[in-house]
């Protein structure tokens, strides 16, 4: 999702995708391919959706599970200028997922006066195969290490 409108490429013909759960996007056959393609998504968000829409549909259920003791990962992936930074960071009128998740976590902790919590979060960027810690600007160019069958940055 992004602030500006990005129409599908003119060289291909795309049918409209609905905003329903388990949406389909169909690419019709054209001169570059004999067969059409169908892509199935859990959610499809157009340019009119806000970060709060994305948060409520996709991220909030992850945070709810996280607060019950499960691990969760929010992963923004896409081509340059596709809206990843806007979705994660947002702006003054449309807060990003980082702020919305933080608000939910701290509100949950404040509401649970009879429990103690230890919350550990990482906020990293992988760009051109380089790993950067976005919470600590002095911690850039991190190395991926393999520990037996697990990886850590």
Automatic annotation (TrEMBL):
Domain Kinesin motor: 1-153
First-listed, main subcellular location of the protein, grouped into a coarse class: cytoplasm
UniProt-listed Gene3D superfamilies: Kinesin motor domain
Any one GO molecular function term: microtubule binding
Start-end of Polar residues biased regions: 1-15
Pfam families named among the record's database cross-references: Kinesin
GO cellular component term, pick one: microtubule
Annotated stretches, region: Disordered: 1-30
Location in the cell: Cytoplasm, Cytoskeleton
Name of the featured protein: Kinesin motor domain-containing protein
Species this protein is from: Acanthoscelides obtectus (Bean weevil)
């Amino acid at each position: 999702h992004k602030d500006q409108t990005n129409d599908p490429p003119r060289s291909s013909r795309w049918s409209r995708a609905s905003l329903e759960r388990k949406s389909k996007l169909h690419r019709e056959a054209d001169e570059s391919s004999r067969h059409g393609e169908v892509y199935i998504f859990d959610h499809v968000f157009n340019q009119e959706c806000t970060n709060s829409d994305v948060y409520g549909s996709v991220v909030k259920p992850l945070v709810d599970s996280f607060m019950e003791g499960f691990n969760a990962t929010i992963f923004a992936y896409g081509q340059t200028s596709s809206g990843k930074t806007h979705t994660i960071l947002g702006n003054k009128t449309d807060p990003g997922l980082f702020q919305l998740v933080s608000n939910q976590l701290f509100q949950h902790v404040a509401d649970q006066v009879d429990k103690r919590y230890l919350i550990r979060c990482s906020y990293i960027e992988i760009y051109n195969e380089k790993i950067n810690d976005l919470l600590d600007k002095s911690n850039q160019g991190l190395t991926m290490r393999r520990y037996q069958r697990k990886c850590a940055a």
